[in-house]
Amino acid sequence: MSKNNLTVHQSDERMFFLERLLLKTQFSVPTHVFAPNISVDAQTLADIEDGAQIVLGKCTDEARAICESRDIKLYNIMQDEKFQAVNSRLTAEGALMVMIEHSVKSIIDCNVLVLGFGRMGAAVAKLLGKLDISLDVATTSSLRPAYAFANNVLPMRDFDFAPYDIVINTVPLAVVNDADLTSMKKDAVYIDLASKPAVNLEYARYLGVDADIYPALPAKTCPYSAAKAMQEYISEVLK
What we know:
By secondary structure, the chain is of the alpha/beta class. About 35% of the residues lie in helices and about 20% in strands. The strands form three sheets. A six-stranded parallel β-sheet has the order 9-8-7-10-11-12. Strands 1-2-4-6 form a four-stranded parallel β-sheet.
C-alpha cells in the first residue's frame, strides 16, 4: 500500500496515468482501483485488506459475497451516469481512429451502419454526424432520437450489409446471423465496441471482412483522458 493508502492495479497505460493523477490524494482507508474492464474475482481479494474500499467495473458474484463478509465496500464506476457518458464519448473517438486506420477509403466516402442506439451507439452517431459521414442506425429503441443523426433507421433484424463500408456494433448480443454476414463487402470493416460481439467474428474474417472486437478502447487510444474520467469519479465518490 502506498503512503496515501492507495493501490492502483496496473493493467494498461490508463491506470499508469490514473496513479499519477491520484498521487497527492489521501484516502482514509485502504483503497484499491481496478480498470473498468477487469473482472475482480475471489482470488484477487486475497491481497485486499478487510475494511478496504474498491473501485471497479466488474465483479463476480462470489467476490461480491466475500466483500460483504469482510466489510469491503465496492464502488462500481460503470454504474455512474457521468462516467459512462464520458467513457462513451472517448470510445466513439477510439472507434473513429480504428475506422481511419482500417478502411481502404476516406471515412468521408464511407457509408456507415451503427448497430444499437443506446448510450454508446448515440455517442458514435453524434461524433460521425459532426463529421458529415453518411450514417444509418439499426435499433429496437425509439426511432425519433436516432433520426437526429441517421439518414435511415432500420430494424435490428434481416440485415443487408451490402451498402456499407463500415459496420460498428454497440449491442452486447449475437444479433447478426451468418447468412446476413455474407452480404458484407469483402473490403468492409466491422468494429465491435460491445462486451460480446454481435457477429461470428471467425466467420466474418473467413468471408474476408476486417472484423474484430475492440474492448477498452479509451485505454488504448486516449489513456490520459480515460484516466482523468476515472479520477474525477473517484474524487467525487470517495470524499
